[in-house]
Amino acid sequence: MNNQKVELLSPAGNLEKLKIAIKYGADAVYAGVSHFSLRIRAGKEFTFETFKEGIDYAHARGKKVYATINGFPFNSQIDLLKKHIATMAALKPDGFIVAAPGVVRLCREIAPEIDIHLSTQANVLNYLDAQVYWDMGVKRIVVAREISLKDVIEIKKHLPDMEIEIFVHGSMCFAYSGRCLVSAVQMGRVPNRGSCANDCRFQYTLYAANEDHNTLFRLEEEPGVGTYIFNSKDMNLASHIKEILDSGAVDSLKIEGRTKSPYYAAVTAKAYREAIDDYYEGKFEPEKYQKELYTTKNRGFTDAYLIHRPFEKTDSQNHDYALSKGSYEVTGLVTEDEEHFLCKYKVYPNEDIEIFTPMGEELVECENEIGKIFKKDGMYYINFKKILTETNKELESVHSGNVNKIKLPGKLPYLTMFRIENVEDNIVE
């Protein structure tokens, strides 16, 4: 059984989100350059240069970076793939996340010094398959999302030296282990090659045909039930962290979401960091973590399949809406100089705005002509008396379209966020 502290692994859609995930509590991040990665849109946010910068940033802080090479290549791409593996290896990531057996073998040949992590796309559910990949040189398996905790424990019993990683939070695919063709059929964008159009999130109109009579008629949905018929709720296992860690079978807890917002990267990292740390300190408090996680945009939450078998589930689909806004809106992000912030929504003078900080940061209360930073009911807030740009131009308010840096009344940690409760309609379709 695993006696080491479990790893918290967060998504890094770009360099900024990589830094946010680390500052808010992640032990490691996963990311990729667009080639051969299953998140082409996120991968395009990284160049080889900025990816190297992210690796150096993480390593300087004792954190790890795993590079995604988890696409499924065609024959015509193999020479390019070989060059890509060599280029990525030269950046010295801590591991490659790979899905295809042939690519596993290729990585072992080209970059034997880089650990191989098997992608969830390989949908390992049992110790027989795990043994095959272990024999190929795979160090860690990201098990299928459909697996049960009981089966994870069984794999660990048979392969105690193999690391096991599980997803604990984020978007769920309605197809088995993400093996979907809906986007490919409708949009020509192939999910298993990184360009999924998320067609499962759309609302559909349903029809019935009778070929004998050559009739076609529209089906009316049940009142109060929408027609997002493929739309899975988001995974949320924060309340089950104690149960998972008690098993001793899991080495890494993974959060999905390379294309999600910086705020999502921050909140999920911090909430699960606190859940993990609290577990080891014997003070696990699920309500606290859930309160934070519900501030992010979501499709409703489900505890997925790790604890309950798929056929036991009746709450994993959301037929009513595509995405909620979450209970909070992010209004600002503190810049690297720690003296300014960039507006992300809208900020007005004389309103109390909650301050959301990276892990382990202590704030200093202050007040001056610009505004004040203060503590109330155990939380820190900021209130602006004046909204001044970096060049001392005073504004009546500031909105996200304004890219000017806005002065702070006192220094705040880099990548601190401001947020306000979302009082607007909470559903986005």
Automatic annotation (TrEMBL):
Domain of life of the organism encoding this protein: Bacteria
PROSITE patterns: PEPTIDASE_U32 (PS01276)
Alphabetical keyword list: Hydrolase, Protease
GO molecular function: peptidase activity
Pfam name, any one: Peptidase_U32
Record-level GO BP terms: proteolysis
Family: Belongs to the peptidase U32 family.
Entry protein name: Collagenase-like peptidase, U32 family
Source organism of the structure: Arcobacter ellisii
Organism classification: Bacteria, Pseudomonadati, Campylobacterota, Epsilonproteobacteria, Campylobacterales
